[in-house]
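User: I'm curious what two different proteins look like when written out as structure tokens. Can you demonstrate?

Assistant: Sure. I'll show them one after the other, since each token string lines up with its own sequence. Here's the first protein:
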Amino acid sequence: MEFWFSEFHTPDVKHSIRVNRQLYSKQSEFQRIDIFETPEFGKVLTLDGNVMLTERDEFIYDEMMTHVPMAVHPHIQDVLVIGAGDGGVVRELTRYDQIQRIDLVEMDPAVIEACRSYLPGNACRMDDRRVHISFGNALKFIRRSENTYDLIIVDSTDPFGPSEGLFTREFYGSCYNALKEDGIMVNQQGSPFYREDAEAMQRSHKRIVSTFPISRVYQAHIPTYAAGYWLFGFASKKYHPVDDLNAEKWESLNLRTRYYTPRLHRGCFCLPAFLEEMLEEVEH
């Protein structure tokens, strides 16, 4: 008998992955957590029936969330990561010796527990001495912070259910206050392809534009995410994501990456016409 995991991208579209076996399943206080072993994508983490990562393509998401701001801001030392309980973003951040502290705020301890056990490739640096893990509500955590961080990475689930509060004007205002005078915020913006996702992306972008003086959207191809097309937001008090890119300095670090390069960095901010129009609708 064949076993498939299917995720609905819309009521009329679903993405299916053949499964060898289910490795983990738990209903936590917040959500349903499952980990599957698949022949094509390796281990797959899902939350409430939605794919969060696969071993095959997680590097794309984690590299684009991390290396884009790190190649722009010249002096990142203090970082706040919201969500990202799988550890992939933390893993990429710990590759930078200049970073002194990484505060990770994760709502659900069960996610970290599951990933430590079944996804060690992602969770391998959670015990780095610079990483400080807090469990709880990220909104409450960030309200207590002011002029604290050089970089905030918001690696949340989609803007529905438990993570809805991480896409509000209040939240982005709290991020602005928690950043130092030249700080950067990066967040996942979802897919612009299907209507419901596109409208959520526009709402989020509108709120960020009204909060930060510099706000740009960039893109990546991630096969297992909706439409295989994913967006990220870059918001800053000072630095422009392309004009202030220091490619030579980043390349001098000799970090091996599988997706991100400075050349790709410049290109990922060049958006297709339909997306530019969608963003312009809410920017003015």
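Here's a second, unrelated protein for contrast:
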Amino acid sequence: MGFVKTHDIGDITASLVGSEITVGGWIEDLRKMGKMTFITLRDVSGISQIIVKGDLNESLGELNRQSVISIRGLVQETKARDFAFEVKALEIDILAKAIHPLPVDPIGRIESNIDTRLNHRALDMRNQKTASIFKIRHHVLQSLRSILTEKKFIEITTPKIIGSASEGGANLFSLEYFGKTAYLAQSPQLYKEQMTIGLERVFEISNFYRAEKSHTGRHLSEFTSVDIEAAFMDYNDVMNILEELIIHTYKDISENCITEQQVIGHTVNIPKSPFEKVTYSQCVEELNEAGEKIEFGDDLLDSHLRLLGKKHEGFFFLTDWPMKLKPFYIREKDENPELSRSFDLQYGYLELSSGGTRLHNPEILKTRLAEQDLDPLQFADHLQAFDWGMPPHSGWGLGLDRLLTTLVGIDNVREVVLYPRDPDRLKP
């Protein structure tokens, strides 16, 4: 027969009882009982029981779990405890056989470690916990785009192959580009700033690259970043947007991904608003009180952030960092030039976002570049935009993968990325 799927399994309702339908999916379970076979068939939308009897049952032959089949059959009521309805098979088409044994058990009866699952990632998507994580990821992306568009942000796409170090950082991947040296972008920072000249409010959701030899559950060489930049806003304004975005996304997932939460075994609790704001200076005081020897101007180490995360649970903003710890494009506070108009968004010890008010005066920007031992000539293309009338602007970058770990209650970003890339993993 020709394979034409008339319904998804999740669409089977009481109104279809007695109707003939065609469904397709993979065999999650199969039980032969004399002259009958019970097939548990799953597709991306749900699961159903298929009853195979008579000559059709005899013709099944050897059929392994996880093989792909299509079924033409009648929808009927069932006495089975786990199903609302079942399908009595009239015709079966075996579309693709699965080998036995499989390298990963998608049902999860036999547990596999994360490396084994990542090595067979496509098959791992048949595991309902894994699939639920990526359904939530899809909804998060939809939610983010929805609220940013509602706030009059325009989505842009910036180059990932660039000709110079975008932020002056050392953690760049370099590559040969038609006889020249190019780099993989670690952020859209300079491009998104330039776009505020004409588009005013822009956002981008894209993959970026950082050549850090980090072996933690929160670092990847290729990661997805959510970035915004907005003209005529200061860092308090974009902090408010970020907080609203987090609350909106949590609420969206809490209400619209109930089944996925149940499968994962984690309930999404909407965070309380407003988020606490803790200044860098306050953090230094708290750390010294806790017995850490830290002075103003020292960067906060992972151990420091873990201590702060125990005191300030959940989401909180860490604001007003020293200027010397921030990139060249961050603007200082007028009342205290040693402090910056900047912030990080923390979830306990985990840094989710970093942002601030940017410099828009080209002369001060050139001075700042020189202070940080960066050559203004390397940033000529960027600096020329400031001579065309650059509005004051602010923005942030948010790690999507890290945000997802907070939503699904898993502390390893590899679980929420389809094919993660880190210093040890380049395949599949």
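A detail about the second structure: The CA atoms of residues 342 and 356 lie 4 Å apart.
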